[in-house]
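Sequence of Alpha/beta hydrolase fold protein (Chloroflexus aggregans).
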Amino acid sequence: MTYKSLLPLLPIQPTFFTWRDEEVAMYQTGTGQPVLLIHSINAAASVFEMREPFQRLSQHFQVHACDLLGYGNSSRPQWRYRAAIYVDLIQALIERIGTPTAPVAVIASSLGAAYAVVAAAHRPELVSRLVLICPTGIGQLDRSPGIGAYTIYQYLRSPIGRILYRLLTTRTSIRLFLTRQAYANPANVTRERIEAYYRTCRQPGAYYAPICFLSGLLNCNIAQAFARLTIPTLLVWGSDATISPLRLVSNFVRSRTGVKVVTIAQASLLVQDEQPEAFIAQVTPFLVGNTSR
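Predicted 3D structure, token representation.
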């Protein structure tokens, strides 16, 4: 990947490491306790949606962010993606960044949060804290893919599927998605945001991971993994979230006692980007608190 081909997703350029023969884009800034940011999963996903916490948390923490494979500046191979691939990748990131004496705090969004939960359950000694933003995996996007999902996937891999993908990723379609599902205030759907999301979902290979999401192949049931976790966990929910409504928080609270919940007003799915000051005000004290389990 050449420098000129890189998307300007964060204020710094990424470095790359090889995982399963593919290049994973990593970003790092700040010093102190390590924090790892994991973005959500959708057609236009990337670290761009984490740019506010990436910059703001760097004042107190060593912040790491990653474009998951198939997204952003990472490689976009023609894989049939599954949830296990992303769980394994996030686990690899946790093992690269965290140590038993300096475990990493993980902040993850939506379906990315579900993968982070399972990865953290595999290596709990390397994770100090979990911040889950409108997570899925319990009561939503938790059904294991069956024959229907694979049928839809094969259809989306066809020329007709490619046409549908192009229609779903026009600037008009992106504006509708951001207005209806990602941001509570339509004024936050700026030209800059639309263009950034548009560019990332129109890169070569951008089609392969999203069609796996659309077909249900990326669903991930985290009920058991979440229930057995003892890592301090904070759930952050946007009061106006529609695609992952606030009522879903009860699924997580019932699964495990001691989980902290924060609701941020005038925010939808991308809480950390829409209300960054309120988000940081809630998350920072949680990250610096006593990490005893």
